[in-house]
C-alpha cells in the first residue's frame, strides 16, 4: 500500500513541476477522470488535458498533502493550485480533494472535487461571481473547457 502513496506523490510532484509526461506515466492506458470543469474524460483526453494545462499554466504553484489510503485500491489527497487563468488574467486559488483508484501500480480512476461556483468567481471575475451558481453558466464553462481540450488535441495529438 505504500506503493500507492508513492504513485500519488510522484503524480503531484510532477504536477508541481508542470511535467505532464511524468504525470501521465502514473495513469493506466484506460484512465477515467472527472472534475467539475471538464466533466468525464477517458484515456487520451485525460492525458491531453494535463498536457494542455501544464503548457498553459502561468504564475503556477501547487501544494499537496494528506495522502490517505482508504484500502488497497482507493486513496484521497488534498491539493491546492495557484495560477493565473489564461482566458481572463485573473488569479485563482483552487482547493481540491482528489479521489483515486490504483491497480497494479497505476491510477485507473481519478476524480477531483471542488466547488465550481467558487472557481468561476475567481477565474471569471464579476460574471462568475454573479452567475457562477447558475446551471446555464456552469454548462457554458464546461462546454468551453471541453471545446478547448478538443481543439488542443486536434492541433497537438
UniProtKB/TrEMBL annotation:
A Pfam family (short name) is SnoaL_2
Q: Where is the SnoaL-like domain?
A: 9-110
Please give the InterPro entries that the UniProt record associates with this protein. Answer: NTF2-like_dom_sf, SnoaL-like
Top-level taxon of the source organism = Bacteria
Q: What's this protein's name?
A: Nuclear transport factor 2 family protein
Q: Which species is listed as the source?
A: Terrimonas rubra
